[in-house]
Amino acid sequence: MGEINRMKLKAGLYIGIAMVFIVGGSLLAVKGKDAVSQAESRKQGILEAEQTTLFYQNSPGTIAKVGAFAGDSVKEGEVLFKVKSAGEGDVDVLAPYDGLVDRVAVKQGVQVQAGVPLAVLQKNTYYTDLYIQESEIQQFAVNQSMDVHFPYLDQPTKVKGSVTSISSAPQFATMRMSREKGQADLTMFLVRISMDSNTDLLPGMTAEVKLDEITD
Question: What does pTM read for this prediction?
Fold first, then answer.
């Protein structure tokens, strides 16, 4: 009888171990599926800064004064350059918007004519471009607001962004699916999301939008 009891005990132990493996495997499968779903719902892009080259637009003249230098913050309407023009007298070149001077291309005393670049200005807004599949594009609309995450900072940051444009992605971004699977080409769309600049953010950082957070 003792031998039979030991055999039953051993069989029960094996069954218990098998159940642990089955339950554990099921939990890992569910967790793995959940991780895949989360990854698919996250769309990532690179944070970029909007820049504009400021060109001289008047008759030929000489730079009489440079009023801003690289790294300076400027306000819309602020005088960045004063030019003495033979045809128009004193000409003020103004900042077209609030922003930051990224680079100054001319010096005092330099002669300029229409079309000469004077400076490169950076807007006080950032943007990121996301590639979105056709099956997901209906979740986005121009002027729609949404949270933009920056997951790789030491303290993950979230800012409010706004969709500024939606367009068909360039041809190189189109994903060609396998004809053997009976699938046609997969159309991709380019969604641009803009946001105010932030002292915690720098161009080149990874920006992320979670589709399951989009409600409007």
Answer: 0.61
